[in-house]
Each structure stands twice: as structure tokens, then as C-alpha cells.
Amino acid sequence: MASLAGKVAIVTGASRGIGRAIALRLSQEGASVVINYARGADQAKDVVSAIEAAGGKALAVQADVSKTAEIRDLFDRTQETYSQVDILVNNAGVILYKPVAEVTEAEFDNLFAINVKGTFFACQEAAKRMADGGRIVNFSSSTTAMLLPTYGAYVATKGAVEQLTRSLAKELGDRQITVNVISPGPTDTELFTVGKTAEQIQRFTQMTALGRLGKVEDIADVTAFLCSEQARWITGQNIRVNGGIA
Asked: Structurally, how many domains does the chain consist of?
């Protein structure tokens, strides 16, 4: 029997990349999956079609997670369709490569609005609506431990997510809701490769202990585990899924 049968999962930023892989993986485990996206309706529909073709249930919902009203609508649509919320995966995020001295206020605000505000208020809705025994998985990055130049504003957002996760785990523990954060290493996605030269990508590859870039399935498998009953005793943790890069 599928380990997540009867569960309902919201995955933000699920139209492509790691989010898409997570949505497909949770569906394989039996969950009904809400595919959140901000842009790329066609891509989101493709994910829904792939899940339905495999016999699963899925719903695409457009919502900009930087806007609290749209986060509330995302949860409303989920409950209207499936009556419950058991799993929240806060995958939506953006990145910026720029020295701290050059980051504009608008760029800073956009990073924090999506990466921190979006995660925070999605967690808030989950805290209000999620069934006891639920699962929240947030996303940080292994770059928070790597001392990389041009990542200052980005890792500031991810450090905030890590601390939110630790605090929320304690707040929701009496309801047996686990809250963890995954910190991927370099993973072969559009978000990672954009703006990088082939040489830069090769350097990141060589920095890993396992000698390769991560695959989206590597991240999706760990996410599915954290959402399962087998991970019931894991909460407040930062799981670095990074091939040994940090």
C-alpha cells in the first residue's frame, strides 16, 4: 500500500524542477497533490496530466506566495477540493547572485517576499488548517554553510527559513506535526544552471564528495521520506541533501 494514501499535499513552485519531481513522487506514494505555480500554467497542467495518467489525483492552483491573500486562496482551493491538508512542501523560491554591496532594495525585497514571507505565511496557514500528524517540509540551501561570494542576500533568506523551521517544530509538536527543512546542494535544474558557465558548474560538481550534480529525484526521495510515517520522529532538523558538498 502506498505510504501516503489518503493524504493531501500542497507543493509550492511545483510546475518545474525540484517542485515538479516532488509532486510526482508524492503522487506515486498515494497522495493527492496540489500543484502550485506563479507562472507557467502550461507546465503546471503538464504535471497534473502526468499524475492523472499514472492514476493519481492532482489540481493546479495559481498563487503568488509573496501575497498572503493568494496563499490563503491556495489553501481554500485545496480544502474545497480535497477537504483537508496533510502535507505542505514550501519549495517555491528565487535566487540572486550579486555582491552585497550591489544588491538593490527592490532585489532584496523580492528575495525576502518569496523565499521568507511566502514560506512563513504558508506555514501559518498550515498551522491553522493542517490535520494533526501532518508534515511540513521547508527548503533552504547548502550554500548557507559554504561561504560563497555573491550569495549574501540569498543565504540571508535561507537562514531565516532554517530558524523558522526550528521554532515552528516546537510550536506544532504537541499535534504530532513534524517540521523539517531540506538544504539541497548543487542540483541539475534551470534555477541552478542559469547564469553559470560550464566551468563554474564543473567546479561545483567537483566539490561534492560523490562527484556529480544532484538530480531532482535525489531531493524528491528525501522529501517523500520526511512526509511519511517512517519519519515521525524527525522534526526541527536541517537535512542537507547535497552529495557531501558541505
From this structure: 1
- What's the average model confidence in pLDDT over 188-214? 92
Q: Looking at the annotation, which residues are catalytic?
A: 154
pLDDT digit string, tens, across residues 114-126: 999 999 999 999 9
The answer to whether residue 211 is domain-embedded is yes
- d(Cα 75, Cα 65) in Å, to the nearest integer? 11
H or E, element range at 179: strand 178-184
% of the chain residues with pLDDT over 70: 100
Q: Is residue 3 part of a domain?
A: no
Residue-wise burial string across 118-156, b where 16 or more C-beta atoms lie within 10 A, e elsewhere: bbbbbbebbbebbeeebbbbbbbbbbbbeeeeebbbbbb
Cα–Cα distance between 43 and 89 in angstroms, integer? Answer: 18
Domain assignment present for residue 246? The answer is: no
Looking at residue 1, what is its pLDDT? 54
Structural domain boundaries enclosing 107: 8-241
CATH number at residue 225: 3.40.50.720
**3-state secondary structure labels for all residues of 119-170:** HHHHHHHHHHHCCCCCEEEEECCHHHHCCCCCCHHHHHHHHHHHHHHHHHHH
221 falls within a domain: yes
Q: Which of 92, 83, 93, 91 is nearest to 32 (CA)?
A: 83
